[in-house]
Amino acid sequence: MVLEGLSSSLKGTLKKITNALFVDDKLINELVKDIQRALLQSDVNVKLVLEVTKKIKERALNEEPPRSISKKEHLVKIVYEELVSFLGTGEKKDFQERIKKAGKAYKVMLVGLFGSGKTTTTGKLANYFKKRGVKTAVLTTDTWRPAAYDQLEQISKQIKADFYGVKGEKNPLKVYKANEKKLDSYDLVIIDTAGRDALSDELIKELNELNKAVNPDESLLVLSADIGQAAEKQAQAFHETCRVTGVIITKLDGTAKGGGALIACSVTKAPVRFIGVGEKIDDFEEFKAEGFVSRLLGMGDLEALLEKTKGAISEEEAEDLGRKMLKGDFNLIDLYEQMQAMKKMGPLNKVMELIPGMSNANIPKEMLQNQEGKIGKWKYLMESMTQEELEEPDNIRGSRIERISKGSGIPASELRGMLKQYRQSKKLMKHIKPGASEKDMQRMMQKMQGKIKGFK
Ligand SMILES: Nc1nc2c(ncn2[C@@H]2O[C@H](COP(=O)(O)OP(=O)(O)OP(=O)(O)O)[C@@H](O)[C@H]2O)c(=O)[nH]1
Ligand SMILES: [Mg+2]
Questions:
Q1: Residue 91 CB contacts under 8 Å (≥ 6 apart), including other chains
Q2: What is the rounded CA–CA span in Å between residue 125 and residue 248?
Q3: Which of 152, 279, 287 to mutate to test the pocket of ligand 1 (most atoms within 8 A of CB)?
Q4: Can you tell me the distance from the alpha carbon of 120 to that of 283, in angstroms, rounded to the nearest whole number?
Q5: Does residue 212 surpass a pLDDT of 50?
Q6: Which CATH number fits domain 302-453: 1.10.1760.20, 1.10.260.30, 2.60.40.10, 3.30.460.80?
Q7: pLDDT tens across 143-190, in order?
């Protein structure tokens, strides 16, 4: 996990919320202090830390939670949302979309300090887009470091990307001019540049000239996570030279200071687009604030789960099912429908990973796989039942079990399991009083789905 330290302190903080008896000012104050401490330890600038925690506090004290969630859940949601907006500043553009629309070679120039990871990232980025079917070339304009040419050539070979440069040439502008025509036939051209100190005039002058000649569609600033807060000054200086359109943070795998770098570059108003999380070519991810914060907080990919649930059952269907259950006429068909809805969300073990708290649950893989197979078997079993049996499963006993098992070709043990699960689900419903509120209903649905997943 990237930013292990920050993640574990934030998780600890959220646990405090879960364990608290109720939400009061004391809990909110404690929460805010904890988050401040966690962010400061991750080297985030004090001023920014105060800004984000002030927002969290204000919302926590003043906002009423929506009817569908509890106060505690609402508090977690506020923390999540504020951290996402904190990390996800700047305009997001769909890279691939822009490459497609450009109608000419889309030029991306990587700039940054010495050793920040530009050359490695040139390869990672090329690999990323090549895999997505984009015709990609890489060009080295690093004429300062003697081995720069060979380094990028080597990486390009490894990922089978077309490589351009002029060996021995000392002037980066000439290197670019010599290759300009050939590069026009690509969809995407990634240009590696020499490392420089953003605050050194001579190097900045050279970068400025190259930038004018290339006129890149994107200038991505490559920053190593270990510079922490110092990222801010560097980002600003690079931005003034060549209008930074996005940032790539590298080496997030190796430092506790990454929080500082991730946040500091927000001064450029350019979003973090990718992150490097290791030395290997595939240790590279597109950066999405929502997913990143969910992972930091240990909530699984909450957003992705919500997306998936949307496609699964419509609200009306869920309401229908809910009403039936309240009336107590929940039957096997409804149980089957519910299983079907869950199946639509994707492979169960994948769905589990996405459910908050579930990714850590020790559920054997085989059990989840069995669960998937089970739905298919249930279908056969149900096809061998009479309408009455489907509606009154409690009547399925003795010889009926044998008949259904024979008719469907599914072992009787499987049928007994299905009936057991039905009874468990039905028992859960008894906890609901007549006239139960929407909120009770939702809670129960959640519980029930939990039971179905944990089915033994
Ligand atoms: N752990 C880790 N190492 C990385 C990552 N990205 C790059 N590196 C390492 O950082 C070192 C420097 O990387 P380069 O790509 O050569 O950096 P550069 O910015 O091109 O360096 P100059 O051209 O000298 O300015 C290399 O040893 C890389 O393997 C990353 O995401 N994680
Ligand atoms: Mg380099």
A1: 269, 271
A2: 10
A3: 279
A4: 10
A5: yes
A6: 1.10.260.30
A7: 988 899 999 999 999 999 999 999 999 999 999 999 999 999 999 999
Identify residue 170 by its one-letter amino acid code.
Answer: K
CA of 243 to the centre of ligand 1 (A): 23
Token code pair at residue 62: 């003043």
- E strand segments, 152-286: 162-164, 188-192, 218-224, 246-250, 272-276, 284-286
Q: Which ligand is nearest to the CA of 111?
A: 1
- Name which residue sits closest to atom 17 of ligand 1, judged by CA: 117
Q: What is the end-to-end Cα distance of the chain in Å, rounded?
A: 31
β 188-192/284-286 pair status: unpaired
Instruction: Tell me the CATH class for 95-289.
Output: alpha beta
Within 8 A by CB and 6+ apart from 357, the residues are 300
Please state the domain extents for the chain.
4-87, 95-289, 302-453
Name the strand (E) or helix (H) holding 111: strand 106-112
Per-residue pLDDT reduced to its tens digit, 378-411: 878 888 888 888 888 888 998 999 999 998 889 9
Torsion 112-115-116-117 (CA) sign: positive
CATH 3.40.640.10 applies to domain 4-87: no
